[in-house]
Design a protein that fits this description.
Elements (H helix, E strand, L loop, with lengths): L2 H7 L7 H19 L1 H23 L4 H8 L10
């Protein structure tokens, strides 16, 4: 298993949630990079789009802490095709 995936899956639960998110994003991008520049560009575009939508959601008026409790801090990427 590639090292980025090992780091993401074997990270201790005591790490802050943001650290888990960043490790997961790193693993996704490294996997796409192994598939080639086109796959990397597609995956990066997906992450950018989902991250922008998540930021817009968190900046919207309302109960931000409730939205964080329900959906978490990160974004959920679709499986690679």
């Amino acid at each position: 298993m590639p090292r980025p995936w090992c780091l993401a899956f074997d990270s201790p639960p005591s790490l802050p949630p943001l650290r888990h998110v960043l490790l997961g994003i790193n693993a996704h991008l490294n996997y796409a990079r192994l598939l080639g520049p086109e796959a990397y560009a597609v995956r990066l575009g997906e992450i950018e789009l989902l991250s922008a939508a998540r930021i817009a959601d968190l900046l919207a008026p309302g109960q931000v802490l409730l939205r964080l409790a329900v959906a978490g801090f990160g974004v959920v990427l679709p499986p690679p095709e």
